[in-house]
Design a protein that fits this description.
The chain has 110 residues and is mainly alpha-helical. Helix content is 88%, strand content 0%. It contains four helices and no strands. The chain starts with a helix and ends with a helix. 18% of the residues are buried.
Length: 110
Amino acid sequence: IILKTVLKMILLVYCLATVIIESFFLFLCGYRKKEQLIIVVCANVLTNLTLNLILLFFGRTILLLALLELAAVAAEYLIYAILFGRSKHLTLLTVAANILSFAIGLIIFG
């Protein structure tokens, strides 16, 4: 029971950190409407929890982490492109937001 609680807390902290970092980044880049931010939050919760649950289940390897991060970027961009409209600028922002949250996550959580 204690282990399950700890794992849930870790997943929650990782997810919350990602949501805060990427939402703030996209907010600074002009995505300031309430609806836009809700979409960003939902997309990040979906991709972050999926990524971390898969890593938890299969183990954390560099190859799997890299593949899942690429999949998360692709999934987030797909969601944003459908709802905000496709653009090269949005692609770059999605990649940049994910690199930023990944780098900050490494610094904070190792």
